[in-house]
Design a protein that fits this description.
Strands 1, 2, 3, 4, 5, 6, 7, 13, 14, 15, 19, 20, 21 and 22 form a 14-stranded mixed β-sheet that branches. A 3-stranded mixed β-sheet has the order 9-12-11, covered by helices on one side. The chain contains 5 helices and 22 strands. It has 324 residues and is mainly β. It is globular. Helix 2 runs antiparallel to helix 3. 28% of the residues are buried.
């Protein structure tokens, strides 16, 4: 079994190593900024003072989180069962904290980093620093992450991505590493026990009409956007789109993201692997087997499950052409 280690920390920053793991689930997705971890373990002391957690795989940290939920069962006199749910620290803080509703004027990339990223431990903001938006509307209920997301989409026509292993935010979701997943024996390939090919079409939008007026009459939906990929699959799914107020400066761009979001998981390769591979979200990938050979892929989701000291990983490979 991989060198998989969970270490909790109390309010005095003292480490508490978890040795008797019952079960564990870890999920990371390129489209969800905060990784998630939950586990159950046997402990032999009354331990409730836990405020953070780190997880290592083969001596490399793969998770640094805050505690969302902790419970302690006492089924017998000599041990307890500890249950913990946790999310990645920096991104969880960005998601959980609201921003004062306001309108920014002449806001720059550096302003966004200083106000909405740096206070939560984000180490770097890997986007052009000199970009300025003349206006940015912050609605009630917006989180710090949603402000960053909106700024990047309006300023660069790209989504921001949280890079968990470096606590950074980037416009480029793809890492320099490239992995080959293959059942054909090669020294540099990652083997898998099962592969499932999924073509998910129930959410794909073929055409969207964007509202261009202030009333609800259909004649005011005068801007439309066609999805050529949907057309190639003979999919007919039309929508009428009322853009959010914060997209007032570019409603057509808002509609474009709405359509593209329906495409992200349209083509998937789901791999089952009986160990924890040394990979990260955003790594490039290729797939080779006796029946198929595919390139231009990336690692979009990683799920790790541990039960009875047995490890299983589920990796989802996605098509790079559908990234937004």
């Amino acid at each position: 079994m991989n060198d998989f280690k969970i270490i909790c920390f109390n309010s005095k920053n003292q480490p508490i190593q978890i040795d008797n793991l019952i079960s564990c689930k870890f999920n990371s997705s390129i489209n969800i900024p905060s990784d998630f971890l939950e586990f159950s373990a046997v402990v032999y002391s009354y331990v409730t003072d836990i405020i953070s957690i780190k997880v290592y795989s083969n001596s490399t940290i793969i998770f640094n989180g805050i505690i969302d939920m902790l419970s302690l069962e006492a089924p017998s006199d000599n041990h307890f069962i500890l249950h913990i749910s946790s999310r990645n620290k920096s991104s969880a803080y960005m998601l959980d904290n609201e921003v004062r509703p306001s309108t920014y004027t002449n806001v720059s990339s550096n302003d966004i980093f200083t106000r909405h990223c740096k206070p939560f431990g984000i180490s770097s903001f890997i986007i052009p620093s000199n970009k300025i938006l003349p206006s940015l509307n912050i609605k009630k209920g917006a989180s710090h992450w949603s402000v960053v997301d909106l700024f990047c989409k309006l300023a660069f026509q790209k989504s921001p991505f949280f890079i968990s292993n470096s606590s950074s935010i980037s416009l480029n979701p793809f890492n320099t590493k490239n992995h080959l997943f293959s059942t054909i024996s090669k020294a540099d390939s990652i083997p898998f026990s099962n592969a499932t090919f999924i073509s998910k079409r129930d959410k794909i939008i073929s055409k969207i009409y964007v509202k261009t007026g202030s009333s609800s009459y259909g004649s005011l939906y005068n801007v439309s956007l066609n999805n050529k990929f949907a057309e190639s699959l003979k999919i007919i799914r039309k929508r009428y789109f009322n853009y959010p107020h914060e997209w007032l400066s570019n409603p057509s761009l808002s509609a474009k993201y709405y359509v593209n979001k329906s495409l992200i998981y349209s083509n998937q390769i789901v791999l089952s692997i009986p160990f924890i591979p040394s990979i990260s979200i955003g790594d490039s990938a290729s797939f080779i087997s006796p029946y198929s050979s595919l390139k231009n892929l990336y690692i979009g989701d990683i799920s790790i499950s541990i039960s009875n000291k047995k490890i299983s990983s589920t990796i989802i490979l996605l098509d790079k052409k559908f990234i937004i």
